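Figure 6 in text form: structure in, sequence out.
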């Protein structure tokens, strides 16, 4: 589906943030980047434009505030990677920021511009952050190091005292191998011929929720066998469907 105006603003601010290596960045440069591209975003109503401009400015301020207090050293911005994780499993992606902490460990930082954010408990098992950490340990950024110092979400669009939400290093987790196991399960799920529908926090915005059997709206499509008594198209029996839990098949 096409991006909403809020998503468009978020994407624009995210792109501007990629120009900011550290707190020494010129705020006027970032603001100018946003302003020059702002009118290209389609608004549902004209009065929304001013509100969204204010929101974009607030996100830039939040970015600069976070950069000013960030103790780590930047190693790379928008760094792509491809790494093998066990037999037949490859992990491919791109990290927003790759930083080095005081102990020389790699920390992946992911910038978020949405209005909501996960709880602390959810961050501890955040699939995307866990996958990034597993990639670090598997040598995705071997030229910089292979020891993970954790991973972080930096919330530019959500309110709160601190913009950064940190996931501890995998080595400090109760089950250090949880992220690697998650990725292997995801690979196995993606290679299967069917998917098990699992209710999760992304169901509300899933583009195929009306066809999903766990949504309460989805129905099995097909032709009923004569005398089977089973519903065909529009029947009440649900089969496998979309909307799988991100822990089972989420993206990094």
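Output sequence:
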């Amino acid at each position: 589906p096409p991006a909403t105006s809020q998503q468009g603003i978020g994407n624009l601010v995210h792109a501007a943030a990629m120009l900011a290596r550290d707190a020494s960045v010129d705020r006027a440069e970032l603001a100018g980047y946003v302003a020059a591209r702002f009118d290209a975003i389609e608004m549902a109503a004209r009065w929304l434009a001013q509100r969204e401009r204010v929101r974009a400015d607030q996100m830039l301020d939040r970015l600069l505030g976070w950069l000013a207090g960030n103790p780590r050293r930047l190693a790379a911005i928008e760094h792509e990677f491809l790494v093998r994780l066990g037999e037949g499993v490859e992990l491919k992606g791109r990290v927003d920021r790759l930083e080095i902490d005081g102990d020389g460990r790699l920390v992946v930082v992911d910038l978020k511009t949405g209005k909501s954010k996960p709880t602390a408990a959810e961050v501890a098992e955040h699939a995307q952050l866990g996958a990034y950490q597993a990639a670090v340990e598997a040598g995705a950024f071997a030229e910089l190091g292979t020891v993970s110092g954790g991973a972080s979400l930096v919330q530019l669009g959500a309110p709160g005292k601190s913009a950064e939400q940190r996931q501890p290093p995998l080595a400090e987790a109760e089950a250090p191998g949880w992220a690697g196991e998650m990725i292997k399960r995801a690979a196995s799920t993606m290679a299967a011929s069917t998917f098990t529908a699992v209710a999760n926090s992304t169901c509300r915005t899933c583009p195929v929720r009306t066809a999903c059997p766990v949504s309460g709206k989805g129905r099995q499509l097909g032709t009923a066998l004569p005398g089977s008594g089973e519903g065909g198209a529009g029947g009440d029996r649900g089969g496998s469907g979309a909307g799988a839990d991100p822990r089972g098949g989420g993206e990094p």
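Caption detail: The mean pLDDT is 86.
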